[in-house]
Amino acid sequence: MPTVHEVEKQYPEPEYPERPLPMSQHETSPAALRRASNHRRTNPCCFCWCCCCSCSWNEDRERAWRASRDTKLETIPNWESCTKPTTEEIKGWSQSFDKLMKNPAGRNVFREFLRTEYSEENMLFWLACEDLKSEYNKHSINEKARMIYEDYISILSPKEVSLDSRVREGINRKMQEPSTHTFDDAQLQIYTLMHRDSYPRFLNSAIYKALLQSLSRSSSES
Hints:
- It is found in: Cytoplasm; Membrane; Nucleus.
- Forms a complex with G(alpha)z/i2 subunits and mu-opioid receptors; the formation of this complex results in mu-opioid receptor desensitization. Interacts with OPRM1.
- Keywords: Cytoplasm, Glycoprotein, Lipoprotein, Membrane, Nucleus, Palmitate, Signal transduction inhibitor, Ubl conjugation.
- Residues 1-30 are annotated as: Disordered.
- InterPro entries: RGS, RGS_sf, RGS_subdom1/3, RGS_subdomain_2.
- By secondary structure, the protein is mainly alpha-helical.
- 60% of the residues lie in helices and 0% in strands.
- Helix 7 (120-133) runs antiparallel to helix 8 (138-153) and helix 7 (120-133) crosses helix 10.
- The longest helix is centred in the last third of the chain and has 20 residues, at 184-203.
- The protein is elongated, with a radius of gyration of 21 Å.
């Protein structure tokens, strides 16, 4: 009869790809998970409009996420600088995806939601394309185009965005002589994907609902 060791060697457990951890790798016990969950519920700042949330739970998750999804494009900040959005602006985000994406605070909140779905690369790619369009220096254009390709187009990248073969082939041709419009078709495709796929779920998410509730509390107190 084969030993347990021999059976394990013959039938090893399947390996699964690692996914970004929602907290530090040392906090994985059931008790730690409950503590993190309770801490999240008692820290509503995680879901508010602000662009610089500093609660410890969010910081732990952020560090784990950055470690596994590092990007070469240092020009894209973790949070965009923004002013506090008005009540009308926040309510307008539910009426139009375009309004949400044109507002820096709206993009920050939507990006936080995408992070919970492990699809933040879609927003990062869109922002990188916007940044590329603002360049005029030929060397900078070439360098940023190369980094965008390596970060979001290459099949070897962990942050590869989902593009159809037609768009991908077009990018490969344009990369022979990059310009500020090299990724226009891809950017539009990802924008459409976020609009049709992620945006409806965002409107029903705890993040956006908590934001609306905070507005209701503020208006009732005033």
